[in-house]
Design brief:
Elements (H helix, E strand, L loop, with lengths): L3 E2 L4 E5 L5 H6 L15 H12 L7 E8 L4 E13 L2 E10 L8 H16 L4 E4 L6 H9 L3 E9 L7 E10 L12
Protein name: GNAT family N-acetyltransferase
Family: Belongs to the acetyltransferase family. RimJ subfamily.
Keywords: Acyltransferase, Transferase
Length: about 180
């Protein structure tokens, strides 16, 4: 999948072996407050290996969000398949480093990630499941064009027993792509 740029000065770079440090940077109590807390080192290494596995971009794809022109790492975003209410859909999630939040980076990255998932022509919908207590991620969903479908409870991280009360945001991938958000 080619790397892409937006008017907000970012690009999405396919996840690489050099991105392990970024997983450590987003593994803070502040960044993981709505996700069950920081992960243990073995969980971070396992996540990194999963992100590196060659996979069909129709199934999943993880990116490093990079700021232009210096290629500074700003965060993580991706999409992957999941079963939801009897159908296979894409799910997306992201994290932007605290010192870079509030600049439209996550919205621009979400719009590009939606476009990448849409280009696969594999699933009709993409969902995001931010915690109901995470106003920033819920605002990103709204600004990126998602529609609030309701609330749900999800176990996250999987197989931990930690239940998150989430908003279910969804977007129809069969609709034509909306224009990217304006530059900030």
């Amino acid at each position: 999948m080619p790397q892409s740029e937006t008017a907000t000065g970012i690009r999405l770079a396919l996840w690489s072996k050099d991105d392990l440090d970024l997983l450590h940077q987003v593994n803070t109590p502040e960044m993981r407050a709505h996700l069950g807390g920081p992960e243990r080192e073995e969980q971070i290494l396992s996540r990194h290996e999963r992100y590196l596995q060659p996979t069909d971009p129709g199934v999943s794809c993880m990116f490093r969000i990079a700021l232009l022109p210096d290629d500074e790492s700003a965060g993580i975003i991706g999409y992957w398949e999941r079963e939801w209410q009897g159908e296979t859909v894409y799910e997306t999630g992201w994290g932007v480093l605290p010192h870079l939040q509030g600049r439209g980076i996550a919205v621009a990255a979400a719009v590009r990630t939606i476009a990448a998932a849409r280009a696969q022509r594999r699933h009709a919908r993409i969902h995001a499941f931010p915690s109901t207590g995470n106003p920033a991620s819920n605002a990103i969903c709204r600004k990126a064009g998602f529609t609030l479908s309701g609330q749900c409870d999800l176990e996250y991280p999987p197989e931990t027993g930690n239940i998150m009360h989430c908003n279910d945001w969804s977007l129809d991938l069969t609709d034509p792509a909306p224009p990217p958000p304006p530059a900030r």
